[in-house]
Every structure is written in structure tokens, then in C-alpha cells.
Amino acid sequence: xxxxxxxxxxxxxxxxxxxxxxxxxxxxxxxxxxxxxxxxxxxxxxxxxxxxxxxxxxxxxxxxxxxxxxxxxxxxxxxxxxxxxxxxxxxxxxxxxxxxxxxxxxxxxxxxxxxxxxxxxxxxxxxxxxxxxxxxxxxxxxxxxxxxxxxxxxxxxxxxxxxxxxxxxxxxxxxxxxxxxxxxxxxxxxxxxxxxxxxxxxxxxxxxxxxxxxxxxxxxxxxxxxxxxxxxxxxxxxxxxxxxxxxxxxxxxxxxxxxxxxxxxxxxxxxxxxxxxxxxxxxxxxxxxxxxxxxxxxxxxxx
Length: 303
Hints:
The chain is α+β, with helices and mostly antiparallel strands.
């Protein structure tokens, strides 16, 4: 996944930073000059690419705002050649995960009738002859929106469709096994993308296939970790402020200074070897970092 390294912050909205990865500019230049035959000037090619940018951005904001609605934590949005990534941390519940993921495609669903109406209006007004560039741009935006919707709903992890499938399986299989099943199904789907790349001799599809295979494999590894984590006894009296999960008991945290493994809830966030104090504690279930004093369960704070 893209990170802030090599990304440029372009603006912030509702406290959510939006970043552009440097590689986005290279692909944008290629996309603008490649489709020169579609319009009368390159300016329209630029508008087409900005429309793609806007559709992806609206999609990612759908994820962000839905995550906030279910009580999750939102971070930034990074746009790169393979689309956009909304870094969100919804509560570790299948319903919260499902809504946070499904809200992105639902934005494209809501935009489809609006864009279709504009296309029909342009046809009725005769813009195909009087304003051909505008007419072409409206058609392309509609196709891009529908294409993004269909592609994102493919049941391949970590696409939205794969994550929606994982959230639904979570109700039946549990957290770890649902991720395992979704990752395996995703690998099968990614293998199909590989064959498409070979059949069409497309470097772009091949890059997408490699990205999907890599992330499906990471999903399988994460599922194995979650399965082991679920078997570890939990420590009473503490709970993650983000996902409310009780932390596992054992020397599962590591000191960044000396490498010592320790149970941060036994040592009160202090490394027993070098004495380093960690005011922020990472949840091994949801991955968020929260101040150590916030981990005390509400029922025990007054004791």
C-alpha cells in the first residue's frame, strides 16, 4: 500500500488529509497524452483525468465518513495509480467493518443515476453535434464510475468486494477464519487477473495482479496471527479504547530500544530491562496506538 513517503499533501477536508503519490503524476501524463484522439484538445484529456481523480476521492471519503459514523478512527487518503487508499480503523466488529467498506461503492452507486441523467440530457439537447467534447466527457465519466464500481466489487481481497465478503463471513466464521477464507478466494480471483494480463498482454493488468496476490498473501499471514492471538488468554481489567478487546496475557510487546519482550500490562508500560516507558500502547487486535492510561477498563477505574 502507498505511504506518506513520496506523497504530496494537497488539501485537508473534515480533518482528513488528502495526499498524492508521486507516481500518480507520471501515470496522469501518460493518460492525458495517450487519449489524444478522443477530444479536440489536450485540455479535455486533463479534465477526464481530473474526473477520475474526483470519483476515486469521493469513493474514499465514503469509507472515511462511514468509519466515523460507527465510532472508528479515520486517518488520511492517499491517491496513487492503482486508485485510492482510505486509511481507516473501524471497530473490530463485522457490522462496523461492513458499513465502513460498503460505503465506498455506495457512493459510486449514488452517482450512477446522476451521471446517467446528464448523459441523457446531453443527448436530448444535441450536444453530440454542438458540443462533442462535453458529450464525450460525460459518457467517459459515466463509464469510469461504473467501471470503478464493478472492479471494486470483485470478491478479491483487499478490494472492497473482498473486504465486504470477509465482513459477511465474519458473522459465521469469526474474525480470523473469515479473513483466511476471503484471502484464499482472493488468491483464486487474482490468479484469474494474471491470466487476463497474459491474454491481453497488458503490463497494467499484470501490475494490478501482482498487487492483489501480494495483499491476499498478507491477508493469509494476518489470519494466521489472528488465529493464534484468539487462543491466548486475555487479561482482565484492561480493554483497548478503540476496539474494546481485552489484551492478551504474555510477553507480546517488544522494547524498541533494547529488544526485550515483555507484558506491558504487568510492568505498567515500562521495559523491565532498560526502563524505557511507553506512554502509547499498541492493540494487538486492531493495531491502534492509544495512551496506556486509557486502557484501564471503565469498571475498574474507580477501584
